Amino acid sequence: MRRSCKVAVIGGGMSGLVAxxxxxxxxxxxxxxxxxxxxxxxxxxxxxxxxxxxxxxxHRTKVHGSLYASLRTNLMRPLMxxxxxxxxxxxxxxxxxxxxxxxxxxxxFLEAFAADSGLMGFVKFGAEVVKVKRTSxxxxxSASWMVKWVQEHQENIEHFEAVVICNGHYSEPRLPQIPxxxxxxxxxxxxxxxxxxxxxxxxxxxxxxKGPSGFDISVDVANAAKEVHIASRSLRFKxxxxxxxxxxxxxxxxxxxDPDGRVHFADGFSVLADIILYCTGYSYHFPFLEIxxxxxxxxxxxxxxxxxFSPRYGPYLSFVGITSATIVFLTSELQSKWIAxxxxxxxxxxxxxxxxSSVKEMYDEMEExxxxxxxxxxLYDKMEGYLDWLAAETGLPQIERWWFHMFDAxxxxxxxxxxxxxxxxxxxxxxxxLNEVK
Length: 438
Ligand code: FAD
Known about the structure:
6-stranded mixed beta sheet; alpha/beta
């Protein structure tokens, strides 16, 4: 028999919105809690930065968004939509639109998605969830979730059968340990607080990390900076100036820093730098969640069955969008469909023991393959299998293969063209691109 549950969705970003749509489709009763005053989460550009530029001070003024002003997506337009609600301007033969849309376009898309899916009436705006806990930890069967939130300085409490957590994972900076950093006199900033290049005029900057943000920010900031030195674990070229770039240099990792302002790299090079800009990623953070059975250990959120369900609470506690290195929107959509169907009884979860065994198996496999803990939710080469599994589980037809071909093509161009990957791909019709990887 189909069940309808009373569900709290925490967060009104992309994951919260698609979760809300899927829950409504399965006839659940939902409330979406959103602490800001609009939907879109990450995609709402916020020019403010935090009071502590590296994000160490727990009492700092906090800002959710991490976008910088010039940001364009790193996935191509067709990969930024949902399976049945494509991103705007996705005609595969049309080369007139930017393949990598600017951030404003993504926000417009999400706002249209929320309106067209009839979600706006279910969102409580300016409602920050501050506590989520079981009403009776000793009596799991009859317990529910107590959700406490603050809205206009008022505390409110309501009980729900299930909670779906979609609070986003790009707000809490992760920093590396650099020998000597305590006595290094320069300025340190995390990419969470990078917005525009102007404050970096004529400065010598060391960027730590060369993931998508490090990569893009180095080009953006180089418009103002005197020199940009990227320190990374994986060099694309021999250490030194990057071919075709006027003032961007690449090095091995930072080995240590000196009290006179010098930054040393493992390749033996050193530079007197004004600023270290950390593009070293983010930590998962669930400050409102008061339960014993879930931890964040070196960025592993666990235990989570297939990155979504807490084995202890089964269908009644789930997470959307924990995974990374994936086609983000499609992944959140499929995870949401699964949650909605598990709650309604259309899909069933294995027993707690079976889910725990599956989690352990994944951890063991990672250990054997030498993968670090902080990569637990990084899908990458597991993405296709994972998404196909979710589609099959939720009774969808097989995912059209162009999604994966396009993602592969993108990764290949990223590897071959480095900093110029967007420019190279902009000029190529999608059909050529797809043919190249088939
Ligand atoms: P978010 O967008 O972060 O939304 C979370 C929401 O939860 C926010 O609205 C927040 O206000 C709310 N919230 C948090 N805590 C609470 C609380 N306690 N109570 C109530 N509300 C709360 N993805 C791509 O697909 N393509 C890209 O090109 C791309 N580029 C990116 C570039 C940058 C710089 C960053 C940081 C991320 C990028 N991403 C990209 C990933 C991006 O995060 C996802 O696309 C998507 O925004 C994730 O949505 P989400 O809903 O999971 O999280």
